[in-house]
Amino acid sequence: MSDFQLTAIGHIQSPYKQKFAIPRQPRLVPQAKAKLVFAADFNREEFVRGLDEFSHIWLLFRFHETADKGYSAMVRPPRLGGNERKGVFATRATFRPNAIGMSAVKLEGIEYKNGQLCLLLAGIDLLDGTPILDIKPYLPYSDAMVDATAGFADTRPETQMTVEFSPQVQAFIEQQTNFPELHDFISNVLKQDPRPAYKKQKEGEQSYGMTLYDFNIRWQVNDEHNYVTSIEKS
């Protein structure tokens, strides 16, 4: 009973190509659009018949990039600045005994094109290529518990970070007609302040880079201000 196998039903095509810059919870960046592409054995519309009646769904997935790195009984949640330890089961850390995660995301549509079944999602917080283990409809009457408390993570994470784009970057973004929400997407990712906790304590200007969709983006952080210096196709 202790050993069993799980089969991925599909994988995520996500704008997040690396762990860095992924929001630490779903729906913090609503402009983060993704697709769930079904694997061959589940690539039939019968599997999702009726799912379009729901606005949101739960995704159960595997932390595929860290699954082979083992797990820890105690972890340092970023929400606490990386300075305090909590039991792994009191957090949503990736280093878990079975490397399983869950996200509640917005379902924007179901697509069946050229023989491939996909779910169109928004507010995603998953790395590109993430294997999906299961899908369940989100039930507001059962899943939204308005009197619930959440310990050290009881409120939505907020920062005072501001974002500014160089004129060249702004002009480039305005030319990307296939990505009408690119400006807001980048802004909201940076407002989440994706830097490691120890970096946030350092003074002076810091430079960073990330890849969203197929764009390489570079920016500088000075105090609580982000200045996006360059963007180019990868």
Automatic annotation (TrEMBL):
It comes from the Bacteria. Coiled coil: none annotated. Residues 6-147 form the TsaA-like domain. InterPro entries: TrmO-like_N (IPR023370), TrmO_C (IPR041369), UPF0066_cons_site (IPR023368), YaeB-like (IPR040372), YaeB-like_sf (IPR036413), YaeB_N_sf (IPR036414). Keywords: S-adenosyl-L-methionine. CDD domains: UPF0066 (cd09281). NCBIfam families: tRNA_TsaA. Belongs to the tRNA methyltransferase O family. This is tRNA (N6-threonylcarbamoyladenosine(37)-N6)-methyltransferase TrmO. It comes from Pseudoalteromonas neustonica. The gene is tsaA.
